């Protein structure tokens, strides 16, 4: 639900602030694409347990924030578009755009913040969502 809520919010036109690990070679080397190679873990084997193991052993760290602004499924694979401020995304004529493969987001995303209207499936689980909000 964590991943689906994020991709759904972006698909609906919301943006999200995301805390993510950027210490992977694909990010540091290309400065434009974030990928998880199959020799690390195949995309279909990424689970919550795989995420937690990497966080506990230090392979995933809470080290960077990016602004997620778009989502598309291309050729059956999910891709996310983000704006980033780190130095590598400004080299070679790149203007701060960063493309994240769905597998990278699933494995390396720590947390995200999005407007509650962007995640209606999650919002209905919150207490008192059927009631008017106090102002």
Structure in words:
27% of the residues lie in helices and 26% in strands. The protein has 135 residues and is an alpha+beta fold. It has one domain (2-123): Cathepsin B, Chain A. Strands 2-5-4-3-1-6 form a 6-stranded mixed beta sheet. Strand 3 and strand 4 (77-83) form a beta hairpin.
Largest sheet: 6 strands, mixed
Structural class: alpha+beta
CATH class (first level) name? Alpha Beta
CATH structural architecture: Alpha-Beta Complex
Stated plainly, the CATH topology is called Cathepsin B, Chain A
The total beta strand count reads: 6
Rounded to the nearest angstrom, the radius of gyration is: 16 Å
Per DSSP, the total helix count is: 5
Query: Could you give the order of strands across the largest sheet?
Result: 2-5-4-3-1-6
H-E order: HEHEHEEEHEH
Strand content: 25-35%
Shape: globular
Q: Are there runs of 5+ residues with pLDDT below 50, and where? A: none
Q: For the residues shown, what is the average pLDDT?
A: 85
Tally of separate domains: 1
State the helicity in percent bands: 25-40%
N-C termini distance: 29 Å
Which properties best describe this structure?
alpha+beta, Cathepsin B, Chain A, 135 residues, six-stranded mixed sheet
């Amino acid at each position: 639900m964590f991943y689906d809520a994020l991709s759904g919010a972006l698909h609906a036109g919301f943006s999200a602030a995301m805390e993510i690990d950027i210490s992977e070679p694909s990010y540091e080397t290309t400065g434009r694409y974030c990928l998880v190679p199959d020799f690390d873990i195949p995309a279909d084997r990424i689970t919550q347990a795989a995420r937690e193991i990497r966080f506990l052993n230090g392979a995933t760290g809470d080290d960077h924030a990016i602004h997620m602004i778009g989502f598309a499924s291309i050729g059956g694979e999910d891709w996310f578009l983000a704006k980033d401020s780190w130095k590598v995304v400004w080299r070679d004529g790149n203007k701060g755009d960063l493309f994240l493969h769905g597998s990278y987001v699933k494995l390396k995303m720590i947390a995200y913040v999005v407007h509650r209207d962007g995640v209606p499936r999650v919002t209905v689980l919150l207490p008192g969502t059927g009631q008017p909000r106090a102002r």
